Each structure stands twice: as structure tokens, then as C-alpha cells.
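Why this split exists: single-chain examples teach little about how molecules sit against one another. For that reason, every record in the complexes split bundles all components of an assembly together and asks for one structure covering all of them. Below is a record exactly as it appears in the raw files.
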Amino acid sequence: MNKEPLYLILIVDDNPNNIRVVFNFLKKSNFRVLVSTGGEDALRKTKEVTPDLILLDIMMPKIDGFEVCRRLKDNPETREIPVIFMTALAEIENKVEGFALGAVDYVTKPLQQEEVLSRVRLHLKLHDLNRSLQEKNHNLSEEIAARLAVEAELKQLNKKLDIRVQERTQELSQAIKELHIREEKLRHQATHDSLTGLFNRAWLMKFLSEKIADSRLKKEENSILFVDLDRFKNINDRFGHLTGDGLLKVVAFRLRKCLKSRAEIARLGGDEFLIVVPGKWDTNKQSSLIADIFEQFKKPFNVGKYQLFVRVSIGIVPAIDGYLKPTDILRDADIAIYQAKQMGRGCSVVLTPEMRAAAWERIQLESDLRQGIEEEQFCLYYQPIVSLSTRKLTGFEALIRWQHPRLGIVSPGVFIDIAQEIGLISALDCLAFKLACQQIEKWRRELDLKEFPVVNINCSAQRLQQPEIVAQVRAVMGKYEIETSAIKLEVTESDFLKTAHQAIEILRQLHDLGIKLCIDDFGTGHSSLSRLHNFPLDTLKIDRSFVTRLTDNRGGEEIIKTIISLAHRLNMDVVAEGIETREQLDKLIELNCEFGQGYLFSQPLPGREATQFLIEPSLFAH
Ligand code: C2E
Ligand code: MG
Ligand code: MG
């Protein structure tokens, strides 16, 4: 148990946390403790009780520690109370001022418990000694010696404190240095691509904004090269992403090597790089840059254990005047590179106004198509399928047409590929299926016939990937009360080849429902004949290109003969499409082809007009 008399210490601090900390360890060390959270309160309290020592914070609102100390020292009642300032490190310069005001000592924040306690104890002792010196005036020399000893101890403590302050200052400057390095690193990361070390997209956008402004002020013109690796995805897929990344690093290195000092290069992402070249593009003058780039890609790239050959396509935006924002430049660079890819890749293309116009047209068409599908601006035309032996109507092929509000009737050749690319083909197929069912239902309602021909509806690979297709088909057919035998689905040979295992399963389910299946445009997809065996197919449609070649001695006859015999062996019947002449028809009959369709019989017609063939199925007899 501590034998010290119970001293009363007043802690003055506006921060309750500080008070709590000091309060706790003083209490633990057997001091009586009084607290004040402000200067005024402290002054009031010292009028009522006289503490043995005051621990006084400096930075406080209203009356700060210095002022409190000054007033304490002005008052004879409180003048003798030892005051120790509690100061933050940064306020150490102020210690001089503190001592000038009559404080006996200071401790620095964050407070070290041991240090505070030893200083408090020392000053209490010193104070006691002083007091007894004044009161009793006895054994002066002993007292002085004791006082000197205490003062020496205090000096020692101060020295220690100074060393610590120095150490802390050093630590602080080291921390600041590290902070700067980290900041610099972050700044680099924000503007650079971590894989290749080239500038990144964020940097490029800012840079292009500046260049657009320069061009607007006629200060400087720049041209843009958009460099894109050909078939980079294949490399990732075949050799893995690590190899892909390794390749990009070498590509970045080689591209940078081609550049003159003032050109800048950035990686946009993936396998896309963008080079900003000073000056308006002049193919005559700058073709060497393009040649250098292509030259770099003639050499193999050694990545890990692989030796890779890659080519690039380059799209060029010849000047950036007139652009409003960087994304517009990127969009046009994209148009130019798209052209380069269309031209067979591995080449460069300079953007022209015509290309831009065509791209805009395509964008417009895409947006029209989205809206068109939403608003169901489509209808079906029906082309008769005829039995070649009886010349009677046996079915129709439903072919979609777009009733475009501005352009009128638009053929699928214009929009099917786009719909496929932008993922709308399934919606279109779904709509075609519904429209066909509506037409069948209408014919049944309006005509009194014993037999109705089968309607062929085209269906894309994308639609066949959707498991819900089976339920949808059943629901639509149920709604219009159409039996499944009334419908045949046509899937092109190339789409068949695209279908995954899951799609074969879907085809089986549809077939099990009773829906017949036809492979369309046969002969164009180069499918292996044995693969056909896996599909539940009923009909094979010979592509028009073979029918066209049938009578011009270009080998069409042999091919058709083979296809027909293959189909028959696999229990499929055969339809020849695109029959335009009597000669072709005769030849097909001779080759044992059962069915045909083509302009010789009829063009595709709107449902209302196709009705005539239902009323008079023998219209094709002559
Ligand atoms: P397809 O399924 O092979 O349809 C036959 C195409 O050949 C039709 O073109 C038809 O009008 C045309 N044709 C028919 N007889 C002759 C002829 O004697 N001579 C010539 N030169 N052409 C003939 P269309 O209607 O323009 O359709 C083109 C393609 O669009 C279709 O080829 C089909 O693959 C696709 N398509 C049409 N409707 C749909 C649909 O609803 N969904 C899907 N996914 N594709 C469809
Ligand atoms: Mg078809
Ligand atoms: Mg076809």
C-alpha cells in the first residue's frame, strides 16, 4: 500500500477522454482527484479547495491553460500551487511561455502514465519541501540538499524527455516521407495500367480532353491510331489468361518502340491500345509509323513456353478538330477499326465521313429494331412449299417482314444479322411463332378444309438455347388451339452447328411434342454428315445456291444427288429452295427431290394473299 499522504490533484482538460485516462491512473496511484473541463470551472474550484497540484491542459476554449495559470499565479491564495502543463507535441515551443507564467513543469501528450506520475510525485515532494522550508525553517542544509537532489532528478527527466521528443520528431518525418511515397504510387496507379505500365484509360480521357481543347484553339492538331489485336480472345481461350497477359506486355513494349518521342500511347483495356500522334494524319508522311507497327507483328511473340503469332488491325481518326468529347473520338476510332476488321483484319483503315454515316445508320437501325420488336411492327409472308410430283401445295414457309414506320416493308436480310448480334433474335423468333399460330388459327376459322398444310417457322440457335422455349411453344399453341403436327421448325445448318448439347435436348423435347424439324440452307454449313444423325430431323432443305448451280454445269447436280440420297437414307424428306426455272424443276424431279419452293411457284406473300393457295392447292399444276 502506498504510504504517500493523500494528495489532491486537479485535472483541467476540455477533452473528457484525456480526463478519464489521467483520472484513472492517478486514482490507482492513490491520489485524490478533482476534475474540471474548462478554465473557468478550474478557477472556481481552486477558490473553494486548494489542490496540491494542478495538471493543466493548454488548448481549451474560452480561457486557455496559459490564462488559467496566469490568474492562479496572480492570486496569492493559489500562487503556490504547482502547475504542470499537459501539452501536445506540437506545442512544445510553448513550454517557454508556460515556464514564464510560473508553471513548474510540462508533460507531453499522448501522456505516458509513468512519466506523469513521476513528475507529479516529484513536484509534490518539491512543493512539500518548499512549504516546510517556509513554515519551519529548520535543518536548512538538509532540506536544501534534498531539494537539490529532487531538482537533479527533474533535470534528468527533462533530458530524457528531450531525447524522446527528438526521436518522435524523427519518427514523424519518416512517416511523412512514407506517406509521400505512397501518395506518389497511388498517383501513378491512377493514371497507369498495372499490367503493361502504359497510361490507362482514365489518363487518356483527360489527355484527349486537353487535345480537343488545343485543336479548338487551333494550337495543335492530333490524330488517333486505335490498335487492336486480331482474335486475341482465341489466345486467351487456348493458352490461358496468364499467357494472354504476357502477350499484352510484349505487345505494349513493341508498340512503344515504334513511337516517336511526342506520340503518347495508352491501353484502353483488353487488347485495345490507343496512340495519339501529333499532327493531322497524312498517310504519305506517316505511313512509316503504320509500317513499323505491322513490322513488329511479323515477328513471333515468345510468351512462356509458347511462340505466338498475332496480327493487329488499326483504325485511324485523322484529326480531332470538331469533336466535343473524348468518347466521341473513341466511338469513331471504333468505327474505323470495325472497317479494318471487315476488310479481313491485319490492315489499317482511315475513318471517312461515309463510314461514320454508315455506322450512324446502323445505330439508328438497331434502335429502331428494339422499338420495332417492342411494338410488334412485324408480320409474316408465306411462301408455298409444293410437292414436285403432284404440284400441290403441301406447306408454307413463314418469312418475317418488318413494317418499318418510315422505310416500309423491310426484308430479313437487312435486320436478322443485326438482331442476332444485339441479342434480339430470340424475341423476334418468339414473335414470328405467335404470328404464325394466329394466321393458322385464322385460316382454320375462315376456311372449311379437310386438310391444312404444315407451316414452317424459322428458329435461330439463340432461341434454341433458351430452356423456356418448350413451355412457350406449348402455351402459344394451346392458346390458339393448334395441334403440334401443323408446325415445322426450320433451323439453319450453321445454327445447328452452333447449338450446344443442351439445345439438342431442347430439340428432342420439341420433337417429342410432335413438332417436326427441318435443317435449313443445307450445304452451306459444312457439317459432317454423320453429325446429322444425332438430331431428330424430319426434313432437309437444300440451299438455293446449289439449286442455282444445278443447270449451269458447275457441279450442283452431283452435290444435290448426294444430299438427296443421304437425306433419304436418314429418313428425311427433301425440299429444294429457290427454284426459279422450269429447267431446275425438271432436274430436281429427275433427282427424286420431293418438295420445292421458289419464285417459279410463288414469291412469299402476305397471309391474306397466300389464302388463295389454300382454296386452290393445285394452282401450281401448270
Ligand atoms: P430462308 O429461311 O432460307 O428463306 C428463304 C429465303 O429465300 C427467303 O428470303 C425467300 O424469300 C427467299 N427465296 C425464296 N424463293 C426464292 C427464289 O426463287 N429466288 C430467290 N432469289 N430467293 C428466294 P427472305 O424472306 O428474305 O428471308 C431470308 C432469310 O431470313 C431466311 O432464309 C431466314 O434464314 C431468315 N428469316 C426469315 N424469317 C425469319 C424468322 O422469323 N426467324 C429467323 N430466325 N430467321 C428468319
Ligand atoms: Mg427458312
Ligand atoms: Mg433457306
